[in-house]
C-alpha cells in the first residue's frame, strides 16, 4: 500500500531528511505536497523529482517566480499563508509532516488536524504556543500526533511498554549543546559560528541556537507536557552529552525504559513515517566497541536560565508560552545578525515575559496577538 504524504517545510533540515527516508522506500510513499518559505531553487528540484500534486511557497513573489519556472510541470503552485493552509488540507494527502520552523507551524497544524489528516509533528513551537488548541482538535478527530522530535519519538516508543496510569515521570535527555560546562563569562563572547556548531546533531540554525541556550530543551518540556498530557512536575531533564539515549520513561514500579540509537534524525523521521510498524533500513548502528562510556549530569539552570523560563511559562500557562516563544525568535535572530551577544538572549526573554499580562484559555486569535506583542516587545528591547 502506498502512503500519500505531504511535507510542510520540505527544503529545511527535517524536510530534506524526510525525503531521504522516502527515497529508501520508493514504492511505499507518494509525495502529494511540498512547501518552502523562500528556497525555490531547491523546491523546484524536489518538485521535478517527486511530482507532487501541489506545492506552496510562503513568500508570494517567490511563488510567482516558481510558477513561471514550472510551466512544463503539472503541479499547482500555491502562495502565502493561505497557500500553506490549502496544502495542509489537500484532499489526497493522508499524512502531513509539519517540518516548519517557529510560530508559522501553528495554523497549518490546526488545519491538517481539522481535515482529519494523520500528523507527524516536527514543529515543537506550535505545541509550545498552542498546545491546548492542538490537543483539543486532535482528541476531537481521534488523531494520535506522531512526534518527530528525537526525544518525543523516544518517549512515544518507550510508552509502548506500559499504560498511561503507570507513568511515574519522563526523563528528557539533553546533549547540553556546544557550551556544556562553560561559565557565564565565557558565554558572553560566543560568536554565532560557535553556537551553530552542535557536537552531535546536524540541525537548522534556529534549533541549533536554541540547543546552545537550552531553550530548545525548555520548549521540549512544554511539547512533552501537551503531547503526553503530563504535569510539568513529571517531566525531568538530564544532560547526557553523548546523545545515545534519546529519552526515558520511568514507570511506577521504578523500571525505566530508554530508547537508544545512533544520533541521527533519520531514525525518528522513519518511525513517524512507518508507525506503528518498524521497517528494516541501512542506517548506522551503535558500535559498542567505540562507545566507551555514557554520562549523565543535571542541567546548570543558573548559567542557562532559558530552561527554567520554559517551566515558569508553562506553569503560568495561557498566552505566556507564546510570548516566551516570540521573544526567543526575535532574540535568536538578533544574535545571528550580531545585534546582541549570546548572553543577552535570556535577558530579552526575561524582560518581555515580565511585562506580559497573561490571558488564560487563549483562542487562536489571542495567541496570534500575544505572539505579535512578544515580537514587538522583543524588538523594542533589542533596539535599546
Ligand atoms: Mg529534540
Structural summary, described in words:
Strands 4-3-2-1-5-6-7 form a 7-stranded parallel sheet, sandwiched between helices. The chain has a 4-stranded mixed sheet with strand order 9-8-10-11, with helices on one face. It is an alpha/beta fold and 384 residues long. It is built from 16 helices and 11 strands. The chain starts with a strand and ends with a helix. Strand 5, helix 5 (106-114) and strand 6 (118-121) form a beta-alpha-beta unit. The model has no long low-confidence stretch (mean pLDDT 95). The structure holds magnesium ion (MG). The site of magnesium ion has 4 residues, from helix 7.
Compact summary:
With 384 residues, this protein is an alpha/beta fold. It is built from 16 helices and eleven strands.
> Radius of gyration from the CA trace?
20 Å
What kind of assembly state do the chains in view correspond to? single chain
- Specify the structural class: alpha/beta
Strand percentage lies at: 5-15%
State the helicity in percent bands: 40-55%
Shape: globular
How many distinct helices? 16
Strand elements, count: 11
List the helices and strands and how they pair.
Layout: E1 3-8, H1 13-24, E2 29-36, H2 40-50, E3 54-57, H3 60-69, E4 76-79, H4 80-88, E5 95-98, H5 106-114, E6 118-121, H6 124-141, E7 146-147, H7 150-158, E8 167-174, H8 184-188, H9 192-195, H10 205-213, H11 215-227, E9 235-239, E10 245-251, E11 256-260, H12 266-274, H13 306-316, H14 320-336, H15 345-355, H16 364-383
Helix pairs in contact: 4-5, 5-6, 6-11, 6-14, 11-13, 14-15, 14-16, 15-16
Magnesium ion is lined by residues 149-151, 220.
Amino acid at each position: 500500500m502506498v502512503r500519500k504524504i505531504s511535507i510542510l517545510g520540505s527544503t529545511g533540515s527535517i524536510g530534506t531528511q524526510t525525503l531521504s527516508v522516502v527515497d529508501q522506500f520508493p514504492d511505499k510513499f507518494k509525495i502529494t505536497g511540498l512547501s518552502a518559505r523562500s528556497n525555490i531553487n531547491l523546491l523546484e528540484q524536489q518538485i521535478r523529482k517527486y511530482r507532487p500534486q501541489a506545492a506552496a511557497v510562503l513568500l508570494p513573489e517567490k511563488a510567482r517566480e516558481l510558477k513561471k519556472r514550472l510551466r512544463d510541470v503539472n503541479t499547482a503552485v500555491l502562495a502565502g499563508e493561505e497557500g500553506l493552509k490549502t496544502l495542509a488540507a489537500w484532499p489526497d494527502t493522508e499524512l502531513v509532516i509539519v517540518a516548519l520552523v517557529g510560530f508559522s507551524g501553528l495554523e497549518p497544524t490546526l488545519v491538517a488536524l481539522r481535515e482529519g489528516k494523520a500528523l507527524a509533528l516536527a514543529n515543537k513551537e506550535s505545541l509550545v504556543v498552542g498546545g491546548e488548541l492542538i490537543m483539543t482538535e486532535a482528541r476531537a478527530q481521534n488523531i494520535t500526533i506522531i512526534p518527530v522530535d528525537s526525544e518525543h519519538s523516544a518517549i512515544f516508543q518507550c510508552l509502548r511498554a506500559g499504560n498511561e496510569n503507570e507513568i511515574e515521570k519522563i526523563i528528557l535527555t539533553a546533549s547540553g549543546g556546544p557550551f556544556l560546562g562553560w561559565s557565564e563569562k565565557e558565554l558572553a563572547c560566543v560568536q554565532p559560528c560557535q553556537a551553530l556548531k552542535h557536537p552531535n546533531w546536524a540541525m537548522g540554525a534556529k534549533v541549533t541556537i536554541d540547543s546552545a541556550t537550552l531553550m530548545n530543551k525548555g520548549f521540549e518540556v512544554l511539547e512533552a507536557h501537551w503531547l503526553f498530557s503530563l504535569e510539568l512536575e513529571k517531566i525531568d531533564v538530564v544532560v547526557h552529552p553523548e546523545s545515545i539515549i534519546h529519552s526515558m520513561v520511568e514507570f511506577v514500579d521504578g523500571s525505566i525504559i530508554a530508547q537508544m540509537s545512533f544520533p541521527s534524525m533519520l531514525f525518528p523521521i522513519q518511525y513517524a513515517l512507518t508507525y506503528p510498524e518498524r521497517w528494516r533500513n541501512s542506517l548506522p548502528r551503535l558500535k559498542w566497541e567505540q562507545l566507551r562510556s555514557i554520562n549523565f549530569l543535571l542541567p546548570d539552570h543558573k548559567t542557562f536560565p532559558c530552561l527554567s523560563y520554559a517551566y515558569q511559562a508553562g506553569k503560568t500557562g495561557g498566552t505566556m508560552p507564546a510570548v516566551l516563544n516570540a521573544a526567543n525568535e526575535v532574540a535568536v535572530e538578533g544574535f545571528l545578525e550580531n545585534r546582541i551577544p549570546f548572553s543577552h538572549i535570556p535577558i530579552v526573554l526575561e524582560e518581555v515575559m515580565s511585562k506580559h499580562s497573561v490571558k488564560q484559555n487563549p483562542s487562536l486569535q489571542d495567541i496570534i496577538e500575544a505572539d505579535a506583542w512578544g515580537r514587538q516587545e522583543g524588538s523594542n528591547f533589542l533596539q535599546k
